[in-house]
């Protein structure tokens, strides 16, 4: 699963990305091997099951801090979008194309209203952030619409309805949108009783909007929540029915960097931090940290960055956490590490899917799986549940 960051310039999107991908404890053996230039490793948080099992864990691909597992995930960032990005303005088409692989999007919005529609600085409160929400959704829809519309006249005139459907699904596949979303989007748009050959531009755009909502769900990171003009705007954003997380990416980045330098003790996503004893802060450092405490943590409860990541992976995408092991009795890998790995996988992932995620050869040689908690044998089609500890039995051996 992959989450993308989207938004206009100067909303704090880069600060969000930098904060989300900065953790002061290095982790080896990510569950993916190649990180592209605009893709970073972020972390989602989930209560670890080692306490439930009465064990002391020894994580390898993730972290466990005070009983919370920090599980590495991918986060893709693109440059800020401006009006008519879908038509190529500001390299918009290129940036949107980089998001085609994303399964969900976090829209970083300037909730303070201190930047105009192109990201230029204006008087705080003078711009309506709801306009930015609608603008980004419209640009993303227009981009998909343009791709489908390119050969629409040719495709839609094919007499066979099935072939028209297949042609649309093939184009959607290039956008990393699965065929399962097609029928649901047609139904939601109210076009189910209308032949695709009869769709006009408005029909096609309506279909595109619905399939984007299904296949690329979006949550709002209402950034710059520390500014006084943000609070009423955040309430208005929530009234639109969208998922809205009050956020201060700058505050989270400050806290993580201060923690990295040993100035404070801070766990990402926490509502508090503490100054380290014996560490001398200069006046500027102390003033900045006090500001974050008073204007962000005590007002909103957290900076929102970690919460937005968790919401994207666990709510928008319905992710579940699974712990693969090689010894189902000791809950260890071959080296004796207890609960060494934690993966977040889509809801509906099967035991065989998990085998392929761990290693292709494990999937190809899959025989069966074992539920280590219950000591039960599982078939290839068994659906993984949140918190499962699974051993894969395969003709191939794990490396």
Structure explained in plain terms:
The chain is of the alpha/beta class and 399 residues long. It has 3 domains: 2-123 and 218-314, P-loop containing nucleotide triphosphate hydrolases (Rossmann fold, 3-Layer(aba) Sandwich), CATH 3.40.50.300; 140-212, Helicase, Ruva Protein, domain 3, CATH 1.10.8; 320-394, Roll (Ubiquitin-like (UB roll)), CATH 3.10.20. It contains 13 helices and 14 strands. Strands 1, 2, 3, 4, 5, 6 and 7 form a 7-stranded mixed β-sheet that branches. Strands 11-10-14-12-13 form a 5-stranded mixed β-sheet. The protein has a two-stranded antiparallel sheet with strand order 8-9. Strand 6 (218-223), helix 8 (230-238) and strand 7 form a beta-alpha-beta unit. The radius of gyration is 23 Å and the shape is flat. Residues 24-35 have low confidence and may be disordered.
CATH class categorisation of the largest domain? Alpha Beta
Task: Tell me the count of domains.
Answer: 3
CATH topology description of the largest domain: Rossmann fold
Q: Name the poorly predicted regions.
A: 24-35
């Amino acid at each position: 699963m992959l989450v993308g960051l989207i938004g206009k310039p100067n909303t704090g999107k880069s600060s969000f990305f930098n904060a989300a991908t900065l953790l002061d404890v290095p982790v080896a053996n990510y569950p993916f091997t190649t990180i592209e230039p605009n893709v970073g490793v972020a972390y989602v948080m989930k209560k670890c099951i080692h306490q439930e099992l009465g064990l002391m864990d020894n994580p390898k691909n993730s972290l466990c801090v005070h009983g919370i597992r920090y599980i590495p995930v991918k986060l893709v960032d693109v440059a800020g979008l401006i009006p008519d990005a879908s038509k190529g303005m500001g390299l918009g088409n290129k940036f949107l194309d980089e998001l085609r692989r994303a399964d969900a999007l976090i829209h970083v919005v300037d909730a303070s209203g201190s930047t105009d529609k192109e990201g230029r600085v204006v008087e705080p409160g003078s711009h309506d952030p709801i306009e930015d929400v609608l603008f980004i959704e419209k640009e993303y829809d227009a981009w998909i619409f343009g791709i489908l519309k390119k050969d629409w006249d040719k495709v839609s005139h094919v007499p066979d309805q099935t072939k028209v459907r297949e042609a649309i699904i093939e184009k959607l596949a290039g956008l990393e949108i699965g065929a399962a979303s097609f029928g649901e989007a047609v139904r939601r748009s109210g076009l189910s009783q209308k032949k695709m050959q009869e769709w006009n531009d408005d029909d096609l755009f309506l279909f595109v909007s619905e399939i984007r909502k299904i296949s690329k769900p979006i949550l709002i990171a209402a950034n710059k929540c520390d500014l006084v003009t943000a609070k009423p705007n955040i309430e208005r954003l929530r009234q639109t029915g969208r998922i809205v997380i009050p956020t201060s990416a700058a505050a989270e980045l400050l806290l993580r960097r201060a923690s990295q330098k040993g100035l404070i003790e801070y766990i990402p996503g926490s509502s508090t931090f503490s100054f380290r004893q014996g560490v001398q802060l200069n006046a500027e450092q102390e003033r900045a940290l006090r500001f974050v405490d008073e204007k962000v943590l005590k007002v909103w409860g957290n900076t929102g960055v970690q919460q937005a990541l968790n919401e994207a992976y666990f709510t928008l995408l319905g992710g579940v956490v699974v712990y693969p092991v090689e010894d189902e009795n000791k809950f260890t890998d071959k080296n004796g590490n207890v609960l060494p790995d934690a993966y977040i996988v889509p809801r509906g992932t099967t035991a065989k899917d998990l085998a392929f995620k761990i290693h292709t050869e494990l999937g190809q040689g899959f025989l069966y799986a074992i539920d280590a908690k219950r000591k039960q044998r599982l078939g290839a089609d068994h659906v993984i549940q949140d918190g499962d500890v699974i051993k894969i039995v395969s003709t191939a051996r794990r490396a």
